[in-house]
Amino acid sequence: MRYPPIDGFWTWDIKRDRVYGDANLSAYFGLTLDEFSHGAPLERCMQSIERDDRPRVRLAIRKAVERRAGFREVYKVRSEKMGLRKILAVGQCYVDDCGEAALYPGWFVDLTQDTACEAQALREVHNHVEQAKDIAQSIGHDMLSYLLDNVEEEVEQRLGVRSGRRKSS
């Protein structure tokens, strides 16, 4: 899998519960560079993750540590400097000489722009589906019109648009 350019790095010292990170991690997670250079508790970093994403991210981290495995999650973070951003975080749990989870380095990329592009593409799909539905209705293809109505509704849901209309039958 190819990833976009990396936006930031971290290393979590699991035994000491200290996350060390670069200036970009500081900007995205709303912690000071001083906090990351001296190591911030993981829970302090978790506070920057959107509330709805936290349980899923916590579980994924716990599983990665328990299994001494990799981590790959997409979630939203909020900071005063960066605002709300959607990121892909990728990490790997490494063990010490005794086989205990010890270090967890990783990196992240900002996917926010990709999300904006996806929304624009969905708006274009919505416009085309709406036009196709109008054409199907005008030539009397009720079943096709019905199916396109369902597609239109699905696109609206993905865009977060609530329509007050009912499906035609």
Describe this entry's structure for a reader:
- The chain is of the alpha+beta class and 169 residues long.
- The protein has two domains: 103 residues, 2-Layer Sandwich (Beta-Lactamase); 44 residues.
- It is 46% helix and 25% strand.
- The protein has six helices and six strands.
- Strands 1, 2, 3, 4, 5 and 6 form a six-stranded antiparallel beta sheet that branches.
- Strand 1 and strand 2 form a beta hairpin.
- It is elongated.
- It starts with 7 loop residues before the first strand and ends in a 10-residue tail after the last helix.
- The relative contact order is 0.13.
- The model has no long low-confidence stretch (mean pLDDT 87).
Structure characteristics:
46% helix, 169 residues, 6-stranded antiparallel β-sheet, elongated, single chain, alpha+beta
**Structural shape:** elongated
DSSP helix fraction: 40-55%
Q: Which CATH architecture of the largest domain is right?
A: 2-Layer Sandwich
Uncertain runs with pLDDT below 50, 5 residues or more? none
- Which secondary-structure class do the elements indicate? alpha+beta
Tally the beta strands.
6
H-E order = EEHHHHEEEEHH
CATH hierarchy class name of the largest domain: Alpha Beta
| CATH H level, superfamily name of the largest domain | PAS domain
Largest sheet: 6 strands, antiparallel
* Tally of separate domains: 2
Number of helices: 6
What would you report as the Rg, rounded to the nearest angstrom?
22 Å
